[in-house]
Specification:
Structural class: alpha+beta
Distance between the termini: 69 Å
Number of strands: 7
Order of helices and strands: HEHEEEHEEE
Strand content: 25-35%
Length: 158
């Protein structure tokens, strides 16, 4: 009978470390091309099931109407579905009030997606694979900017 050879601990630790290097750090978003109103409603229901009452996220627009804040990410703080504060991410300078339309809450992004689906102008949408909020939207109308929402987290009031 041969003795059993044990793998040295450092070999096992190295193998685990190498495997971790190849593991993705964040789940991939769920992308839907030519989405329907039902697609938007299904993800909105998932978002509503676990939406925090206070959160922050970063929203960026690119192209389209050419607003002065295009390609400048905005850090948005939302409390109870109302934008409480918005600042330019790069300079921390305040974004002008009142926040009547822009920047939107996550529910506002869902409203925009639903409206544009109804107009036949939403060509693709990606949803965060964990919280199910709209992470990216692309439109068929060249006057509309693409929209990206990222880094959503529960916020602490300032």
């Amino acid at each position: 009978m041969k003795p059993v050879t044990l793998i040295p601990r450092w070999v096992a630790a190295l193998a685990v470390s190498l495997a971790a290097c190849h593991a993705p750090t964040a789940p991939s978003p769920i992308t839907i091309v030519n989405p329907s109103a039902d697609d938007i409603l299904a993800h909105r229901a998932l978002w509503a099931a676990h939406a925090p009452p206070l959160y922050s996220y970063v929203v960026t627009t690119s192209g389209g109407f050419g607003a002065s804040f295009n390609d400048r990410p905005l850090q948005v703080v939302v409390r109870n579905d109302t934008v409480e504060m918005a600042t330019f991410f790069d300079t921390q300078q305040p974004f002008s009030k009142p926040y009547t339309f822009w920047p939107p809450t996550i529910d506002g992004l869902f409203d925009l997606a639903a409206y544009r689906v109804g107009e036949g102008e939403l060509s693709a949408i990606s949803f965060d694979s964990v919280l199910s909020y709209p992470a990216r939207m692309a439109f068929t109308n060249p006057d509309l900017p693409s929209i990206e929402a990222a880094d959503l987290s529960s916020a602490t009031p300032r």
